[in-house]
Amino acid sequence: MKKIETYLHKKILVLGLAKSGVTAASLLHKLGAFVTVNDKKPLSENPAAQGLLEQGIKVICGEHPIELLDEGFELIVKNPGIPYTNPMIEGAFEKGIPVITEVELAYQIAEAPFVGITGTNGKTTTTTLVFEMLKKGNKQPLIAGNIGTVASGVAETATKDNAIVIELSSFQLMGIETFNPKIAIITNLYDAHLDYHGTRKNYFEAKSNITKNQTDDEYLIINADQEETFDIARNSKATIVPFSTKKQVLNGADIRNGWICFDGERVMEIKDIALPGTHNLENILSAMAASKLSGVENTAIQEVLRTFTGVRHRLQFVEEINGIKVYNDSKATNILATVKALTAFDTPIVLLAGGLDRGNEFDELIPYFKNVKALITFGETAPKLERVAREAGIKNIKRVDNVEKAVPEAYRYSESGDIILLSPACASWDQYISFEIRGDIFIEAVHKLK
């Protein structure tokens, strides 16, 4: 960790805890700052805040009192989930108090270079692939951000011999000032989180922050099949490295005659890759590009791609039972993610779908239902999904109470050679506190079948 004096004797407010807030508060305390932590959860129900209190850090819990901003803070480190419309944040800007997220803090203390991954879909799979490829290539990577340990915690222990591979959300990227990854990846861009950002323009601008401090000594890996990522690349000073599943590109990653290639060099035949799905080829190409730019040999990349079958809850292979392959794609919390899952297979599918009703319809799924032989629905959106299934000509439709009950029903409609696929197209919050819990229950029910 760099021994910086930037925060020595500075008054800093850490707003919102969770894991990133706790780590940031502890780190700032070590760096000599006068830290105040403010979290909405009452102290009696807040063990994290209690632990910080024991370290000698000032803690204010139970509310976000706006008058707290009158105490002369020189910086606010904000939990990424707190929107910029929050009165505390709006008040801070009115007073001229800078607001950052914990990722910026991590960058300032890190001795190791960063490989940063952002985008709408595929971030976690790409981050995991980059990490595994760098590890197999003996590059001593550490994994951080949304997928791993809190970034500033990782940065504390990282040395110049490591590389920090970090998944970055738009929320985190809105709060950076100097953060500058050696290699940045933008997997793709679609409309998302508009309830937080307000407009797609704001959302895309937040994503573009990943490259705002890059120079031509750094690399920006972009999806060459999307105009939106090219728009960001045009305003970047980084060396641009494109990837494409649809065309050949110069100085980048693409597909040629059934091979994945980098800069025209064949790296591996697609038929030998374990991870299914056309959309995963995008993730593979971008991860391969980052790994090649990091000096990883082809043999290490090949070894990872022969064995990597997916991240938990993201088109994750679970089990094969009597010739029926079962996949858990609980992370598919929107229609686009389910479309990508459905197009990953060309064999008959028994689809499990449903969840929180956000007011949208599901007609966009109809063209992708051609391989769906049966639909098992659950949750608030069950009637809507059943309507589009009928319009698509699916005859086998069954509604059940929850994911656990959906599994034996799906098996009943399946036969050898079929795919059972949990890809809900909806958030989980009508029945489960997270998509992870939903996916875990699905996996457990599958194992009970066996």
From TrEMBL:
Task: Supply the enzyme class, top level.
Answer: ligase
Tell me the residue numbers annotated for binding ATP: 119-125
One matching Pfam family is Mur_ligase_C
User: The organism sits in which domain of life?
Assistant: Bacteria
* InterPro entries cross-referenced by the UniProt entry: Mur-like_cat_sf, Mur_ligase_C, Mur_ligase_C_dom_sf, Mur_ligase_cen, MurD
Question: E.C. number, please?
Answer: 6.3.2.9
SUPFAM superfamilies attached to this UniProt entry = MurCD N-terminal domain, MurD-like peptide ligases, catalytic domain, MurD-like peptide ligases, peptide-binding domain
Any Gene Ontology CC annotation = cytoplasm
Give every Mur ligase C-terminal domain span.
Answer: 313-426
Q: Which reaction does it catalyse?
A: UDP-N-acetyl-alpha-D-muramoyl-L-alanine + D-glutamate + ATP = UDP-N-acetyl-alpha-D-muramoyl-L-alanyl-D-glutamate + ADP + phosphate + H(+)
Question: Keyword Nucleotide-binding on this protein?
Answer: yes
Where's the Mur ligase central domain? 117-290
Key word Cell cycle present: yes
Compartment(s) where it occurs, according to its Swiss-Prot or TrEMBL record: Cytoplasm
Recorded GO molecular functions are:
ATP binding; UDP-N-acetylmuramoylalanine-D-glutamate ligase activity
What biological process terms from GO does the record include? Answer: cell division; cell wall organization; peptidoglycan biosynthetic process; regulation of cell shape
- Which family, according to UniProt? Belongs to the MurCDEF family.
What is the recorded name of this protein? UDP-N-acetylmuramoylalanine--D-glutamate ligase
Q: Which organism is it from?
A: Neobacillus massiliamazoniensis
Source species taxonomy: Bacteria, Bacillati, Bacillota, Bacilli, Bacillales
Q: Which gene encodes it?
A: murD
